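To: structure desk
From: M.T.
Subject: fold request, one chain
Message: Could you run this one when you get a chance? Sequence is below, nothing fancy, just the single chain.
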Amino acid sequence: MEEGPFNLEEYRRLMTKRLSRKLDPNEFRYSFQICINDESKKHIGWVNAYYIDNDYQYTEGQGYLTIGINIPDLNSRRKGYATEAWLLYIRYALNNGYKDIFTQTWSGNFRVIGLIEKLRFKECMRKKDLRKVRGKLYDGLTFKLDLNSFKKAYNGGYKK
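Reply: Done. Structure tokens follow.
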């Protein structure tokens, strides 16, 4: 599947619709927006979650929690925002009882793979030539959080 450019206006419409619905404060949140915590409060991206089944395929409702991140704003990349956002979201998931946390990407997504490994995820599944990006085939990758390694590296893993 070839990805098109990010459409900011379409995304704003979708987010406005989502933000207008009333949230239950006790309900697990499957998406958070990322804004820079300074005077600008600039929106730079989001983290999200979905479920995969035992075959590492998307599934509705039940399965293994799988997290993703996107920072479309190129000027906001490589500044540590993705690391901090995912650390917060992983801790949020752990604090809400999730023990098995996964993530997925494609083999050419080197920056995200670096982040994934930095946060102590380990590759657990590779599907050959699953995704086409700019005319080239890449493997689909699934990683599972190594919880013990994560806890050692990130002060127990849970937010205190």
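Reply (cont.): The two ends are 41 Å apart (CA to CA). Let me know if you need anything else for the meeting.
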